[in-house]
Design the sequence.
């Protein structure tokens, strides 16, 4: 989970992120995701973001912020971690 991307999103910033790890889950936006190692795609995505006017960039940033606040807030993340820990504990108990 790329926390720096989540932090940028929480501040309402548009992002340009390599599609590695959980970046796709976090962003869920093909405009802000680029395949790693594809230089022309990265350049094209940078140009696309630079060509947007400030209002369009703010709109992307607001969408990012809303996504983080809705799907990755403290309560939902606590519940997810709790589920994972309980699942591991239950599997461990079943094995013993």
Sequence:
């Amino acid at each position: 989970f790329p926390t720096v991307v989540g932090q940028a999103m929480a501040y309402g910033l548009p992002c340009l992120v390599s599609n590695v790890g959980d970046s796709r889950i976090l962003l869920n936006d093909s405009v802000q995701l680029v395949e790693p190692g594809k230089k022309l795609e990265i350049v094209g995505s940078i140009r696309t973001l630079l060509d947007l006017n400030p209002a369009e960039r703010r709109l992307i940033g607001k969408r990012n912020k809303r996504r983080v606040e809705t799907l990755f807030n403290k309560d939902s993340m606590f519940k997810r971690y709790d589920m994972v820990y309980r699942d591991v504990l239950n599997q461990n108990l079943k094995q013993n």
